[in-house]
């Protein structure tokens, strides 16, 4: 709390400096802050104040701050458009390539072309290549600001290269070793560089078993490699092993957050990432799912309608519809979550397909049997009708088993067919399980009709 | 695929070396692998083979590997118990303190005391302190292997200190500056150390605005700081600003994964972390939720039972029970997910409480109105009964609005009362919303009874 207040005071002073034109004081205080805090300050300003900021700070200084705040910021476009064109272009070329590309890919093509035409040819060419990598691949999250050296030099000369590049590289904690054709041949951490004697040759101290990722690799798989190996950065190569860029751990944290939010959204049938919306917009995003499921629910309603005679003869049956569909839906949701999670962990998919589905069905039989017995006892006592209790209990057990089957089989099949298993959301499974549960319930009930007509 | 196969071949050779007693070849190949790969190999061995490994590798070498594999490994206990006591104790003291503590905290107290008594006094004292920090706090995930220096020296001499500590420190990429009493007074990154001139004084180049966390801070808040600032490590202090340890980004990735799995589990009403279980055990974990919700579902059944006369007079009402409860449940799940997510982002909780709940209710009114109109039209045409359509549509709209209210209000209240909002799981919200939906539905239907008796 104290630190936040302290920061508030600093922000107040900075705003005063802006308003009163104290360029020197502003620069000193501002540049002394962490880039994240600079970003917090910048985002609290009015447009008029921001325009002064652009005249007080260099494109490089604003670019460093933009590197930190660009993630998930809906206003970046507006910020960009209020800068002079050449200032914005220079700032973009000063940003790390991965972040500049993120930002550019939110603009329309004509605007992108405008900015690229104002940069120096080399930066523009690099960004143009980067803009073509597919979303969610290594190419789309890598930066090109890495440090590379050749093997045929001493630790001392490598340290000298490093000092030159330390100011602009995204990370200097791994140094990649390449041959004449820029093939990745080794890696050495700065830690090893420091530990080893200055006169050692890089070729002798580097590690030749480099873990790298391909430019087209899925970002989720890359995140898994980071988790396994505890790396701070990984090199990205093309299919001929040319070094193209690096992925750093801060980007991987964003990937992990993104994937977690997407799994969570899938389970709930709503995109939880977009939360600062007005009710009309939010409703617009949720309705497609709700209406689709409404039609699936209509199938359940038609099915019950088909059994209406049964219900009119034994209205007691209506009492337990929601209990059976509800409980089966809950069990199906559990199965779904376990199956989707197992797919996400994705070790050894082939074996786990049948193992998961069979495991879930067996779990369904056990939970179904116990839940069924419980409800049998309750109904038998409450309604004084053990036959009715038996029907409800039996239907419950079968409905839960089928819900577990659907909850595990559907996401596994989705995944096998190449779709995102999270499309089989919780609401979809519960709505589908309503249908199967009602079918099971009324079929079992029909068999025992004579025992509770009129009850 | 190629890399995996290559690794398989290496593993085969290593096993042969073990069986044939080629100590030298084994050590060379094994120590050349990344510690994660060493761990993969080690975990593929039989107990007899592991016993040979302990005689081929030093406690330090095994400890380095254990640092990487200890996370979420259920067999660590067994591995530990098959080593000689003194070997295990030395290995534990060679591991990073955070990992050693993780491992020790899975053992019972007598065993912990046994290992601690075999270590040197200093290591044992350090671990004993660490074992007392509460779960999920900075203290429980910090390591004590950091590099600290005093300000009154040159960059050159600091680099010298760093070289000495580089082999044992968990990270050398931030160097923390402390005063005589070990108060944290500054920080300098290795990058800055390298960029600056060798004769500069540390006091002049260090940053005095150090972002640090307190030893009792919640790990989720610490993860947020890592996200914001893109740090690789953060210093941990006590309440008098003494430096106690560091939290590193690899541990934060574990925290983020853990929190995501817990949110996901909460939404589904099942612990998705434990997935390698037999059906009986899995059922045992899921049943408490299912049975609890079964009783809540019984309340809904009693309510319908209360309206049984209504149903027997107009059995058509039974047809739409599951459609209304199902759709409202889907909408409530969406609200829940959005509310829990907003709590997790936790910026400015006070304001967002009412904003979230009111926003969700308004969203519910909009989605409810549109869904209600749709079902009104369908029922009016299908059953040729606009009054029935009106009842269903009206009930749908009210039920969705109430489900959105419950879906957002309950997790927000939970959080305000100091509980984990994820306890209000998706299945809980759908089961509760079954109850409110049925109540709404039959109350509205009662008002219009005369229009569809006998239909």
From TrEMBL, chains A, B:
<dbReference type="InterPro" id="IPR000644">
    <property type="entry name" value="CBS_dom"/>
</dbReference>
<keyword id="KW-0129">CBS domain</keyword>
<keyword id="KW-0460">Magnesium</keyword>
<keyword id="KW-0813">Transport</keyword>
<dbReference type="InterPro" id="IPR006668">
    <property type="entry name" value="Mg_transptr_MgtE_intracell_dom"/>
</dbReference>
<feature type="transmembrane region" description="Helical">
    <location>
        <begin position="435"/>
        <end position="453"/>
    </location>
</feature>
<comment type="function">
    <text>Acts as a magnesium transporter.</text>
</comment>
<feature type="transmembrane region" description="Helical">
    <location>
        <begin position="352"/>
        <end position="381"/>
    </location>
</feature>
<dbReference type="Pfam" id="PF03448">
    <property type="entry name" value="MgtE_N"/>
</dbReference>
<dbReference type="InterPro" id="IPR038076">
    <property type="entry name" value="MgtE_N_sf"/>
</dbReference>
<comment type="similarity">
    <text>Belongs to the SLC41A transporter family.</text>
</comment>
<dbReference type="Pfam" id="PF01769">
    <property type="entry name" value="MgtE"/>
</dbReference>
<keyword id="KW-0479">Metal-binding</keyword>
<keyword id="KW-1133">Transmembrane helix</keyword>
<dbReference type="InterPro" id="IPR006667">
    <property type="entry name" value="SLC41_membr_dom"/>
</dbReference>
<protein>
    <recommendedName>
        <fullName>Magnesium transporter MgtE</fullName>
    </recommendedName>
</protein>
<feature type="transmembrane region" description="Helical">
    <location>
        <begin position="387"/>
        <end position="414"/>
    </location>
</feature>
<keyword id="KW-0812">Transmembrane</keyword>
<feature type="transmembrane region" description="Helical">
    <location>
        <begin position="287"/>
        <end position="304"/>
    </location>
</feature>
<keyword id="KW-0472">Membrane</keyword>
<feature type="domain" description="CBS">
    <location>
        <begin position="206"/>
        <end position="262"/>
    </location>
</feature>
<dbReference type="Pfam" id="PF00571">
    <property type="entry name" value="CBS"/>
</dbReference>
<feature type="transmembrane region" description="Helical">
    <location>
        <begin position="316"/>
        <end position="340"/>
    </location>
</feature>
<keyword id="KW-1003">Cell membrane</keyword>
<dbReference type="InterPro" id="IPR006669">
    <property type="entry name" value="MgtE_transporter"/>
</dbReference>
<comment type="subunit">
    <text>Homodimer.</text>
</comment>
<feature type="domain" description="CBS">
    <location>
        <begin position="142"/>
        <end position="205"/>
    </location>
</feature>
<dbReference type="InterPro" id="IPR046342">
    <property type="entry name" value="CBS_dom_sf"/>
</dbReference>
<dbReference type="InterPro" id="IPR036739">
    <property type="entry name" value="SLC41_membr_dom_sf"/>
</dbReference>
